[in-house]
Amino acid sequence: xxxxxxxxxxxxxxxxxxxxxxxxxxxxxxxxxxxxxxxxxxxxxxxxxxxxxxxxxxxxxxxxxxxxxxxxxxxxxxxxxxxxxxxxxxxxxxxxxxxxxxxxxxxxxxxxxxxxxxxxxxxxxxxxxxxxxxxxxxxxxxxxxxxxxxxxxxxxxxxxxxxx
Length: 164
Ligand SMILES: [Zn+2]
Ligand SMILES: [Zn+2]
Ligand SMILES: [Zn+2]
What we know:
It is globular, with a radius of gyration of 16 Å. The strands form 2 sheets. It has a 3-stranded mixed sheet, with no helix packed on it. A two-stranded antiparallel ribbon has the order 1-2. It has 6 helices and 5 strands, in the order ααααββββαβα. Helix 2 packs across helix 3 (60-67), helix 2 crosses helix 4 (76-88) and helix 3 (60-67) packs across helix 4. The protein has a single domain, classed as Orthogonal Bundle (Arc Repressor Mutant, subunit A). By secondary structure, it is an alpha+beta fold. One zinc ion (ZN) binds next to loops. One zinc ion (ZN) binds at residues 6-7, 12, 16, 18, 21, 55.
């Protein structure tokens, strides 16, 4: 897969072929689960597909609503469990500032994740900078603090919103 794929661009241009991003993420997820012997069940797969319907993060209840839009009756717990599986396997990240989920752009690589979150369009770019992770854990350690999560969330305006 070429590095220029839209799924890998930090802030993909508006109007890009987003179905390609979703298809790319799904095939990466299938491959990763196969390698690890993790079961990507139908519901887990569809939750991931729903998360990837957009680059903007989605709340669990939005995901549930989209899944059930066609008349299905999936329970919230089932969706939370599917999200837990996807997070454990590094396919989805949870952004606590938005209480929402976003598809991982670099699945299969060990990273804690840093996010640039646009407050206007809610698009999110995922960075995986070791420099940032190391600086945060050093600063925490020097204060006798033991972090249990390492996700850094930065709010601001994305290049698409700054241009318009
Ligand atoms: Zn896209
Ligand atoms: Zn990630
Ligand atoms: Zn924006």
